[in-house]
Design goal:
Largest sheet: 5 strands, mixed
Low-confidence stretches: none
Number of strands: 9
Number of helices: 5
Structural class: alpha/beta
Helix content: 10-25%
Shape: globular
Distance between the termini: 22 Å
Radius of gyration: 17 Å
Order of helices and strands: EHEEHHEHEHEEEE
């Protein structure tokens, strides 16, 4: 769950994220934009010693995070603007002004600046995700432009609320036929 501003009253499947998996985020942005998918400039984030950059994608979920989106190839001007925006976003009044209307859903591609596998290995392993149901509203054309995706199968639904609605898990405790666990707007099921 991601939220900016007031916390939601219940768990929401606000959006979906893709891992750049060792690729340069600028190269990912160039490929997405060439396919007609508008992205934001790479936006930087940090939590303690973990840093990352993320592209917000337009056209995969309705009412996206309000960022400047473009299909123009990435260039030096964009990198400079992203640096200035990142620095300005650390200022309280600027950050508050930029998050007044946070959007109703988001799709992102993230490039991690730390060893994600080592970070994940430090916690107990959990069940494997074998499927994800995502409400995409009227954004099916954006998903078609992505082409085939690696990872768990996505069940894209044009009806109902946008965002992640159901996650199918496999592993200890998540056998098929197990009663689903409902957390607000997200249902976890065994498969």
């Amino acid at each position: 769950m991601l939220a900016v501003g007031d916390p939601p009253t219940q768990v929401e499947g606000y959006g979906i994220g893709f891992d750049a998996a060792g690729e340069d985020l600028g190269d990912v942005a160039a490929r997405l934009r060439a396919a007609g998918i508008a992205t934001s400039p790479p936006l930087a984030g940090r939590a303690g010693d973990r840093a990352w950059r993320a592209l917000h994608l337009r056209g995969l979920l309705p009412d996206p995070f309000p960022a400047g989106f473009t299909t123009r190839p990435p260039g030096l001007g964009e990198r400079l603007a992203a640096g200035v925006l990142g620095a300005a976003a650390r200022l309280g009044p600027v950050a508050r002004a930029g998050t007044r209307r946070s959007g109703g859903s988001m799709a992102v591609v993230t490039e991690y600046g730390f060893d994600v596998e080592a970070w994940r290995a430090a916690v107990a392993p959990g069940p494997a995700v074998t499927g994800v149901e995502v409400g995409v509203g009227g954004c099916a054309a954006g998903w078609a432009a992505l082409g085939p995706l690696a990872g768990p199968p996505l069940d894209l639904r044009g009806d109902g609320a946008p965002g992640v609605r159901r996650i199918v898990l496999a592993g200890a405790g998540w056998e098929a036929g197990r009663a689903p666990l409902v957390l607000g707007a997200v249902t976890l099921t065994g498969g």
